[in-house]
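User: Hi! I'm working on a homework problem where we have to compare a predicted structure to a textbook description. Could you give me the structure for the chain below?
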Amino acid sequence: MTALQSVDQELYDAAKIDGAGSWQQFWNVTLPGIRPTFIFVVLLTIINSLLIFDYIFIITRGGPAGATEVVPTLMWKEAFERFEAGYASAMGLGLSFVSGVIVLIFVLLRRRGWEV
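Assistant: Happy to help. Predicted structure tokens:
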């Protein structure tokens, strides 16, 4: 909400004078104005979603019929309940690869001059 309030009202007025509709104002004024905050929130959400193992494991252990199953809890089940350490390590490498791609995207955005 603070990021939305920080977008200058004069930009909206100028867009209206130029004939921009609601969607054009959103795409060309609002999103560029809140981009640093939006990217920061997305980054924290991704990091927290990858670190969710302990909460789910303690509360539900993957839930009834796998309803709250996430990759880390599935890795734990494969490694320590089904004794499939190779499969669990392959999932771990896949999760590491996905994490690396996310970090690479943010590094590239940072190099292009985005305030991340």
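For your comparison, note the following. The CA atoms of residues 32 and 105 lie 18 Å apart. Residues 51-116 form one domain. Good luck with the assignment!
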